Amino acid sequence: MTKITPEKDLRIETMRGLALFLMVAGHVIGSSSDLGMKVPDDSVLRYLYDSLVYIRMPLFTAISGYVYAMRPVNSGSDLPRFYLGKFKRIGIPLLVVSTLFFVLQMVVPNTNDKPQLTDIFSIYFFSYAHFWFLQSIFCIFVVIALLEKAGLLLTLRSYGLIFTMALAAPFAWESFPDLFSLDRAMQLFPFFLLGLGLHRFGEQLITRRNVMTMAVVLAILVGIDQAYLFALIDLDEPDVALVGTALGLAAISLLIARRFYFKPLAWLGYFSFEIYLFHVFGTAGARIGLNKLQVHDAWVVFTVSMMLGLLLPVAFKVVLERIGPLRFLSVAFFGAKTRVNRVPPRQKKATA
């Protein structure tokens, strides 16, 4: 089986694996009582879902920003080549896998949603299932590359200004268009910038004082959020969004600042893209199969769905890579990894 290469930051891979685990768990449970496992609103699983909703996809996005900052676009980069690389890596799997999922939703019995064939073209332009994230992250890369090309993220001061504007944008405008999931991209953009900034300006941002302050802030925000979940306080929608965004920023900052290494999560992190794309085939298949076997215990369904959702995509990837005639499918399903075309660094003078 594929091993994690030495040059990877295993602590970041652990964080990516954690984000992946939380994301798959969220999709298994479902965002409402008529999706996923269809658990009632007063269940423990629903409580866990609601408690972690501000961390799952924001953490996934922040890790993307942190990893991007290791090989960023700069003033000498070829933007068309960068965008083409991102399309190969993100766009092609988006088109191929979303089409496959759409067809299976139509033909497989007992799925939560039954789309019509006439709706197939809309899935490529608007939010659809979990593929909305791929549309959003591509939009983010488009904007980030332009900001980097203009040199607007090179100093902490200019970065802070862009970060503040990104935070304010979703609150300043009531709604962004759903086209290419731009509305969700705007919500996630600050978290991508957070990850980028924690890598690029780590020495200034990740200090003992800042970490302690963030921990106190996080404790307060978690208390407010829990009080809201248990109906001890009443918050309107803008206040909930504000608390949730702040909670996510604080929690993710601490996770990245105090990141740790845990081998199983790091292993999952290595296969993050494959699992993200194909986990629904395992989770939905497990749920439908267990229901046919009359197995309805929530924790059994949750556990089996998690296992298949995490491991089935890995097995699928390994099989495609090991069977020569099928390797071309790996590019179609998982995209081609490309590197940013950067200006070569200046050669350092030799020292005695």
TrEMBL record:
How is this protein situated with respect to the membrane?
Answer: Multi-pass membrane protein
UniProt keyword Protein transport, yes or no: no
Which Gene Ontology MF annotations are present?
Answer: O-acetyltransferase activity
* Compartments reported by the entry: Cell membrane
Q: Which GO terms describe its biological process?
A: enterobacterial common antigen biosynthetic process
Domain Acyltransferase positions: 11-316
Keywords, comma-separated and alphabetical: Cell membrane, Membrane, Transmembrane, Transmembrane helix
Q: Which InterPro entries match?
A: Acyl_transf_3_dom
- Where does the source fall among the domains of life? Bacteria
Pfam families reported in the protein's UniProt record: Acyl_transf_3 (PF01757)
User: Has keyword Membrane?
Assistant: yes
Chief location category: membrane
GO CC, one annotated term: plasma membrane
Q: Where are the transmembrane segments?
A: 12-31, 51-69, 90-108, 120-147, 154-173, 185-202, 214-233, 239-257, 264-286, 298-320
User: Which family does the similarity line name?
Assistant: Belongs to the acyltransferase 3 family.
Output this protein's name: Fucose 4-O-acetylase
Organism taxonomic ancestry: Bacteria, Pseudomonadati, Pseudomonadota, Gammaproteobacteria, Pseudomonadales
